[in-house]
Amino acid sequence: MPYPPPRTPSGPRRRSLLASAAGAALLAGCSAGPDSAAGGTPSAAARARARAARDSEGLLARYDAVLAAHPALARPLGPLRAQVAAHRAAFADQAAASPSAGPASPSAGSATPASGAASSPALAVPAGEKDALAFLATAERGLADRRAKELLDVPGELARLLASAAAAGAAHAYLLSEEAK
Question: Whole-model pTM?
């Protein structure tokens, strides 16, 4: 008995439909970019990046104010200050790479010790060295906590950068607290 001729489907095949659906989902996921929202306003990620750069700039200003008031702390604070400057530069570089972040982010080129202190109002630095270290530890701890909370609301690479900066800030807070004892 001969086999009946193969039946050809009248509509699209299952593989064609799956490929089309996958392609449509891929295209739907594409947009003008991760940092731009409708209307050309900065996205939440771009605003978070600019805020992180400003926060690092403020923390750098605190380090500079403490170093200006207590030059003897230059040796223990130098490496911590350098890491804060690196964080500021990383956030500012990311914000500068994003066209929607705009001029709100500080430039990464001003990493001289007096740059942050000169651009902000005079900070009240405690008179004693131990109190000044505790002042910095409190600032580091507060910023690390804010960054740890904020990283939950931002996309991949920025979340990793915030997590890294938060971890470094927590370590700085610990080291500063130990030094202040």
Answer: 0.66
